[in-house]
Amino acid sequence: MRYELTTLSCSPLGMTDASKLARAWIADAVAGRLLGIWRSDIGTIGQLIVLREFDTDGDLATERERALMSTDPFGSASGGTPITMESFAPFPFLPPVLANDYGGTFEFRTYYQKPGGLPGTMAGWRDVIAPARAYTDHLVVNMYALDGEPRITHIWGFDSVAQRDTLRSEHYAANLWPPQGGPERIARATSTIAKSEPGLPIV
Q1: Is the pLDDT of residue 118 over 70?
Q2: pTM of the entire predicted model
Q3: What's the DSSP call for residue 133?
Q4: In this structure, are residues 192 and 108 in contact, taking their beta carbons and an 8 Å threshold?
Q5: What phi and psi, each to the nearest 5 degrees, are found at residue 52?
Q6: What is the CA radius of gyration of the chain?
Q7: Domain ranges of the chain
Q8: How far is CA 53 from the centre of its chain?
Q9: Could you tell me if 81 and 10 are in contact, meaning their C-beta atoms sit under 8 angstroms apart?
Q10: Does the fold of domain 94-196 match that of domain 2-89?
């Protein structure tokens, strides 16, 4: 399984139109499945985040080529919307991403890894998933980048920012989080809170 995160940057007032244009462009896809679209709420404002799933590297490459050769990829050209497209593979011990109602509030966390840090990071996550189940049940996916700077991106879904904060505090206090050795392998990190768009598999 492969995943693609596409981020479209636009004015906050233009996000509704950008979402409609992106959905229309994705509707003509020759491969892959649209899992979710989110609007950034805390962090960098004016971002539309699109998550798509592909069965194979070939399917992802086909859609990436379609985007690169399109005169209006994700409907972005008509609004002058800058876009980035990132390719990921999931942590192999995690279940596939499933359609689910997580509550509408999502966190996108990216950890840029120190050189050689990915194997140890994955091992720490593998060990903590079950013991921290009350928290990790909110994990949509954790995945590592196939291109660019070494990094992992994990997506979490909650009813609210308050629920997210409470769960993290409880698991830190109980020494159930973070994963063993994880923080030591992070070179830098970013976090964005986003609201899901309705009518999609992940909301």
Answers
A1: yes
A2: 0.95
A3: H
A4: yes
A5: -125, 155
A6: 17
A7: 2-89, 94-196
A8: 11
A9: yes
A10: yes
List of residues 6+ apart from 148 with CB closer than 8 A: 86
Cβ contact 172:182 at 8 Å = no
CATH architecture of 94-196: 2-Layer Sandwich (3.30)
Q: Helix %, strand %, coil % for the chain, to 5?
A: 30, 35, 35
CATH for 2-89? 3.30.70.100
Best CA proximity match to 194, nearest among 85, 46, 75: 46
Q: Please report how many Cα atoms fall inside a 13 Å half-sphere around the Cα of residue 146, on the Cβ side.
A: 15
Report long-range pairs for 15-21 (Cβ below 8 Å, ≥24 apart): 15/39, 15/46, 15/48, 17/79, 18/48, 18/75, 18/76, 18/79, 18/81, 19/48, 19/197, 20/75, 21/74, 21/75, 21/76, 21/78, 21/79
pLDDT for 42-56, tens place per residue? 999 999 999 999 999
pLDDT digits (tens, 9 = 90+) for 148-187: 999 999 999 999 999 999 999 999 999 999 999 999 999 9
